[in-house]
Amino acid sequence: MERGFKLLSSLVLSSTLLTTVSIAAGGDGTLDKVMKDRGLSEADVVRAAKTYNPTGVHDKYLIFSSGGQSGQVLVYGVPSMRILKYIAVFTPEPWQGYGFDEESKKVLDQGKIRGKDMTWGDTHHPSLSETDAKVDGKWLIINDKANPRIAVIDLSDFETKQIVVNPVFKSEHGGSFFTQDSEWIIEAAQYAAPFDNNYHPIEDYKESYRGGVTMWKFDPKIGRIQEKDSYTIELPPYMQDLSDAGKKVSHGWGFTNSFNSEMYTGGIEVGMPPNEAGMSRNDTDYLHVYNWKKLAEVAKDPKNVKVINGHRVVPMDIAVKNDALFLIPEPKSPHGVDVDPTGEYIVVCGKLDTHASVYSFSKIQALIKNKDYAGTDPYGIPILDMKKALHGQVELGLGPLHNQYSPVDGEIYTSLYVDSQVVKWNFKTLKVLDRVNVHYNIGHLAGMESNTADPQGEYIIALNKLSIDRFNNVGPLHPQNHQLIDIHGNKMDLLVDMPIPLGEPHDAVGIRADKLNPKVRYEMGTNSRTEQISEGKTLAGQERIERKGNDVKVYATLVRSHINPEHITVNKGDNVTIYMTNLERAEDETHGFTVDNYNVHASVEPGKVATVKFKADLEGVFPYYCTEFCSALHLEMMGYLMVKDPNKKYESAQKLKMATMSKEQLKAEYDKTVAVNKATDDVIQSVVKFLKDNHYEKHDVVKNLVTDALDQYGKIPEQKKLSDAAIKEGDFEKAVLFENMIWQYMVKTADVGIRAKDLLVKFVATKQSPEAAKGEVAFNEGGCSGCHVIGKVSSGPDLTGVLGRHENGEKWVADFIKSPKDKFEDPYVKAMIDYFNLRMPNQNMKDPEIKSIIEYLKWIDSNANLF
Amino acid sequence: MERGFKLLSSLVLSSTLLTTVSIAAGGDGTLDKVMKDRGLSEADVVRAAKTYNPTGVHDKYLIFSSGGQSGQVLVYGVPSMRILKYIAVFTPEPWQGYGFDEESKKVLDQGKIRGKDMTWGDTHHPSLSETDAKVDGKWLIINDKANPRIAVIDLSDFETKQIVVNPVFKSEHGGSFFTQDSEWIIEAAQYAAPFDNNYHPIEDYKESYRGGVTMWKFDPKIGRIQEKDSYTIELPPYMQDLSDAGKKVSHGWGFTNSFNSEMYTGGIEVGMPPNEAGMSRNDTDYLHVYNWKKLAEVAKDPKNVKVINGHRVVPMDIAVKNDALFLIPEPKSPHGVDVDPTGEYIVVCGKLDTHASVYSFSKIQALIKNKDYAGTDPYGIPILDMKKALHGQVELGLGPLHNQYSPVDGEIYTSLYVDSQVVKWNFKTLKVLDRVNVHYNIGHLAGMESNTADPQGEYIIALNKLSIDRFNNVGPLHPQNHQLIDIHGNKMDLLVDMPIPLGEPHDAVGIRADKLNPKVRYEMGTNSRTEQISEGKTLAGQERIERKGNDVKVYATLVRSHINPEHITVNKGDNVTIYMTNLERAEDETHGFTVDNYNVHASVEPGKVATVKFKADLEGVFPYYCTEFCSALHLEMMGYLMVKDPNKKYESAQKLKMATMSKEQLKAEYDKTVAVNKATDDVIQSVVKFLKDNHYEKHDVVKNLVTDALDQYGKIPEQKKLSDAAIKEGDFEKAVLFENMIWQYMVKTADVGIRAKDLLVKFVATKQSPEAAKGEVAFNEGGCSGCHVIGKVSSGPDLTGVLGRHENGEKWVADFIKSPKDKFEDPYVKAMIDYFNLRMPNQNMKDPEIKSIIEYLKWIDSNANLF
Question: Which residues, if any, are the signal sequence (chains A, B) (predicted)?
């Protein structure tokens, strides 16, 4: 198998852009054929073109979508509708080590309720942080309806950093919504329940059950909710639903709707009509309008608050006394309340009404100022007259739910659940402009930075609740269907369906991708959840195992392709902590880690420290390994945890005699390995020379790769020292292994170095003429590249310089392509046939193709130094 | 808000196919503009067309991919590369209720190791069940490398039904592979470890650590592994890697390669070179070749097996004595071993060698028959001479790993990890045919039914381990990149990149979608994990709460949109079991269920019974609700769990006096509600008439919807009875609520009924002429539909019959479109302007467009009965 290495070396220099092929299309009927084969219309092709991203092309927008009952957040690109990541938020997720490493367990532990682990969430409304009512790309928050909590995700690394539990709600829905400078977060309750943790009979619903809105103080600089500066506004048990924060002219105010102003409490089991009947009896429910800014001041006075479960609650009567809480009737069982980009209009849609209602903030303020009330509710809250507060209403269709704004003045998009439509209308003129069918039963819809002061337009996404027949059947539990709608033109155009493979997303928000700038690595030694340097930070050479009584702490490092240490022996019952530092700097060079059967897993990105902890309660031998396919030698990136029972005696079983190598054989293997390394190093040096000669440092992306390759290469001298030391001790066996390690580092250097070289070639090659480009296509399409690889001897000769190899070279080559067999007796061709044991076939090339290929060969020769 | 209802009624009949718009493309420059805007080449457009699925179009192939460290399996479509589902397998997943309901907990409990919960898995190799070496679409299995286990997934509902733990391995990799009639499953170990559960020092590696292959007996009829009929072949601690089962001529044999025939055990922490150096020292490792069929017979004799951890193990010497175990040298550190469609060729690629090695099964058999051995290994296993067993070798490039076959004789596709390429070659002629660059560092590659006796060709998917720059940056942890490659032509063509949002898929298998036929609902009352009728099956009317001491059992039903019961009161400390039966029959009508703060969740598809169980250890009031947006009233689908402390005394807090309605007011509300219901019913009856008149029963998809609508409608008489009974008792309040419930059922009937009607219209409408179709486009694109909705009065008059409304109607309409203001004084137009308070604008239509619109209007009139 020595040949193996030689070919490896010979290949190092020759891997190039040889297969960068573009196929000819359009003009030659290829597209027509594909359309016919796949039954596509011309409109389909336009839609395909509007949503297709060629390899490596990024999306213009990113969508952050709730993952519904998966408890996670998903991120996808628009217009390609490709899901880029499920971010672990409320549910343990092993790929990310979330809930399986110690750092993330501390985040999840913040989400315990009354001491109980909550291992999932029903995520509903994601919200992006804002500065001056525009999204700023810094923080994302999302709420959990089932276990009233809010999580904070850092958009610099897409990791969950904080979870806070609502101390008084038992359920919530109308969170989470940032205010316009992210100084507060609105979280409204859903199902009313007692604020305390005691039993109260359902008969006491009106007296003891409460709704509310919690205003969480948020520090946008550090991205953390400040729990003790936060407070809750007590509200009647009307079952609050969605909320939105006022902005610009309405900044300081919050809006929260409700769906059970009937205060019906059901009783189907005792012959009462179900909740769905009783809760939708009235024609109107209440929009809650509150001045949270004023109430934040009010709450500072301890006389104005009740402290429940350690949390400040502003009672309704205090809020009313301070002119900070009002109700406005709104159509039956509303869903969305959405403040327009100016802050003046508040659009509410009632799912059991066919209208959208547009309220005017200035009209509301005038009513408040003049104390022009239509009455009070049973709890003494002033009610404003609906008609006087309305700018107007417009009939949209069946089951209108949510609204998204566009940059066009007055333009708004509303989802219709029952009609399964998106309707475009104007909330100023109150005219319907367009509608499009979606599939099926749309809930929320998501625009791009839509409900901010700076909506981007371009696309609307329908978050459909049913997909039914849209996709291949994958069992009784169907995917959801997010449909992308193009809103550039007068008519909306439904572009494409996107199945959601996990969870039922409830709501989603879009952001221009260029507003995000996430990191690709951590500062070496970082605990990513606290963003501090970890106590477990371990650099190369600092690896160690420390013991204190039953506590064993392992300070380990991970790097392509070994874990240090490779053996950990502990006693049964020991508490084992393994800190792992990923020493890599290269982008995407993540290592994973698990100890078999001990149910721990960590994802350790470059620079990160992740920690796993377990009680070694099972005796035995347990492999541990890197769970990412991080390099060619990833399978070998492993070690053994050995758990001894301190009360047992063990005897060695070493009986098996293996044949051993003689000193001479070992010396010969050593010499061979050193020679192989020398040859490989020559190859690497030639790559390095190529890179330097062509100024790799001018191209950032190449420079990063070279840095990584040199990182690997830089580890060689240390191994060489160890090898030399072994030789001094006469231990050839050990020396062979260290030389082998040197070869491994060389392979890793070459792996990355080749990628760097390939990229550099693309940067520095002279531009192809259109004719040469056509030639490259013909060369590849025509099958030439099956045997001829540029810059390399393959199944046929290397064609670099072929035009100069023969007299009147261009004609010679053209003739040969046109009719190979005419030259089979030519001495040069004959020699080649003998050498390769192959005759060049006639590929039936047309004259213009041959002409183009000659141009391509000329281009190759002009860049011969690059191949 | 009465108007709300009236419009609802008026809309019921008019929701139609009005927005089924197709935009004109291609000829009019739209495509060119999109290409320019998005920087697409003609080749890009072809690739877009090759991968785009218009709304509702299904994929030809489904891919089942390992979810890597997520512990799940993902399913996606080809060529659209849309992920359809993450199937929960080894990791709890709340959306599916997996690990959150009792039924699935029992499946996960099967996967406990030595009594410990394993809450994740490192899934590697999925395998589809086969009949006669062809995939049959019945079962899918997948292995867990970290905690050696195999899971069985039922492709009739895409749920995990069984998990078995390997009783002797501590780690595995070369599973799971079905034999050709799915009668056995091959599972090979990875990191060698003692078969027993005791500590053995690493120095005893060669004596006490073992590799092996477990042969699991599988019953393809019921889809379950039969643990006690299974056995393990003991192997040397060479660290077995991938496996494949022989087929056809090689049926009965198994092939498993290895990567540490050096038996190196590392020691980096004590100054030894790391495993990656020591384990790749030799130029060759061993391919294990074994006759599992013969060994299954051998294992039946208790004298031939050792029983370890209750499991039968065939020792190496017994296997050798029975001529059933052999070794063949294979190139350094191989990854893939792949048996060709005929079973004669076995292709092995060594990641540290540049070659693929093609072994011949008949040559291997000849060597075995003639006992032509090159020697034995230290454990006495006969070694066959590599050269004599080889059909040949071919140089492919750097880091060849895995192979997939195509229907073309001899054609094979191999992944090159270091070169980041897929190479096409011929394993018979040993010629390289083509190569394509992928991005980056490909591991496995997946063809369609590829390594079976009937490979389908068409596509190859590259499962790349790094994506680096391919996608928008989503933080240090990158998605993986699956790239779809078209292999229809001579040249491979890279079509599209697909990010993997969760986990690092290791391997994937493809199947023709038409081989799958999953169900969309369960037989009413089914426990989906056992496929038996559940003890908790509850039909409408059977709902109840049963108590026995501290055990409370709730038999509940779920149906749009209520949970029965709505109140559950228990004592603190009670053990609560809630059985839920989803009474729905409609496709995709799933209900979810959770009790707030009790960390349970269930996904209850139509017909299914799911059970949640918890100890009511927290006092208080806890809402429970349906977590799926199942219908317009989904928020109201809720109830309360109330947990009382039996040691506490509670006093009622009822003090609040609410205004109550007088008997007269209640009577008036009752009358109004009954009238509304009557009017709504008239509307429904007219829809029903339309459906019947147009023979809805002829169209299956419409028929299913009508069945569902009538299901809802059928619930009304019972409510009417309750309403009438309340009236008899003089309880108008209660009667109003039951009438309201009737209205809710009517809304649900209408919801589905409208969808049925819309669909039916598409089936029965006369076909549009091309001219009329153009007219519809022009009508929509030109903005007419902004005000005019066919079949309905909207912001402008209904245009149904407009051509007959005026003398010389066609000309009248054409003139009006061309210059509206010329007719503003026309009495009819004047009346319309007054009525709608709008003047028709000039949309600058061209003459041919106007002509087409007239044709469209004619088509409308010919189908006027449908709108």
Answer: 1-24
